[in-house]
């Protein structure tokens, strides 16, 4: 269900768009500042520290100030773009799909690329390494830590996986809690608030957990993966369709040239794990829209 589609050559024509001085002057007067928002996959301080150099780079390349808005939850980014108040949104797949489903007039233009040109990642369930749990079924009556209702790897894929195991989280587990971020889910597991936690995982040396290890927030050896999902399409960056075409071209160019024009700022986004951004489109996220609808139906069945 989560198999990614290759995205081929839709960018060349749009990259060829070159603003005339008069047009550039027009949009700079209308957009003296662009607002950039990032879903809180990690805590607010971590997002600010990770994104600050990239905001400076974007401001220089686009030619107008780009300001980071640290969202309190995934829904804030969705609402902000739907209201036209966030010009550029850095989403997870499910939150982007939810934005489309709820009428946001946006287009995905760039996708994260992992090592080896891979444009996908996984959802995992972590348990403490020394815990007795060897499979999900061993966790009956224990506490589950999810991330956010609009998180792909931290809610929707885990709920899809549990349903495939014929497990209803709300009745199988003692308690299901939303921790607010992937970091908070690991911390809740670390502190014993939950017994199993959903999270994102690219590879043994690239995951939310390894990034927390780099920041001194956790020890990798304290946890083990109990379950790994099918591959999920990587996260997109999307802009408002109402932005001027020459401004959108500048934004795209800034993203696609970031790895060479400001390698330090680009590497900071992923602790140096990602390859350069590549073009994408809304169509790539159609399977995630179907995933969201599936999880919505599960919720409706339980409430009826």
TrEMBL record:
Quote the InterPro entries the UniProt record gives.
Answer: PhnD, Phosphnate-bd, TAT_signal
Looking up Gene3D superfamilies in the UniProt record yields:
Periplasmic binding protein-like II
Keywords, ordered alphabetically? Signal
Single biological process term from Gene Ontology: transmembrane transport
GO CC aspect terms: ATP-binding cassette (ABC) transporter complex
Note the superkingdom of the native organism: Bacteria
Question: Could you say which residues form the signal peptide?
Answer: 1-24
Q: What protein family is recorded?
A: Belongs to the phosphate/phosphite/phosphonate binding protein family.
> What is the recorded name of this protein?
Phosphonate ABC transporter substrate-binding protein
Which organism is the protein's source?
Methyloraptor flagellatus
């Amino acid at each position: 269900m989560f198999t990614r589609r290759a995205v081929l050559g839709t960018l060349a024509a749009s990259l060829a768009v070159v603003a005339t001085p008069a047009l550039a002057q027009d949009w700079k007067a209308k957009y003296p500042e662009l607002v950039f928002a990032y879903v809180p996959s990690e805590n607010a301080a971590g997002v600010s520290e990770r994104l600050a150099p990239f905001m400076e780079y974007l401001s220089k390349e686009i030619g107008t100030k780009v300001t980071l808005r640290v969202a309190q939850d995934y829904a804030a980014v969705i609402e902000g773009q739907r209201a036209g108040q966030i010009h550029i949104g850095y989403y997870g797949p499910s939150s982007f799909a939810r934005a489309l489903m709820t009428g946001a007039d946006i287009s995905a233009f760039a996708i994260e690329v992992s090592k080896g040109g891979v444009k996908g990642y996984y959802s995992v369930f972590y348990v403490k390494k020394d815990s007795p749990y060897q499979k999900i079924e061993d966790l009956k009556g224990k506490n589950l830590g999810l991330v956010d209702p609009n998180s792909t790897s931290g809610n929707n894929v885990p709920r899809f996986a549990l349903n495939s195991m014929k497990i209803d989280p709300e009745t199988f587990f003692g308690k299901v809690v939303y921790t607010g971020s992937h970091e908070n889910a690991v911390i809740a597991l670390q502190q014993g608030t939950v017994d199993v936690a959903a999270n994102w995982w690219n590879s043994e040396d690239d995951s939310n957990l390894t990034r927390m290890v780099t920041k001194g927030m956790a020890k990798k050896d304290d946890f083990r993966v109990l379950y790994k999902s099918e591959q999920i399409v990587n996260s997109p960056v999307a802009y408002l369709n109402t932005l001027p075409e020459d401004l959108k071209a500048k934004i795209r160019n800034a993203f696609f040239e970031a790895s060479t024009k400001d390698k330090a700022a680009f590497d900071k986004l992923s602790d140096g794990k990602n390859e350069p951004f590549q073009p994408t489109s809304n169509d790539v996220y159609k399977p995630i829209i179907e995933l969201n609808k599936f999880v919505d139906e599960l919720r409706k069945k339980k409430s009826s």
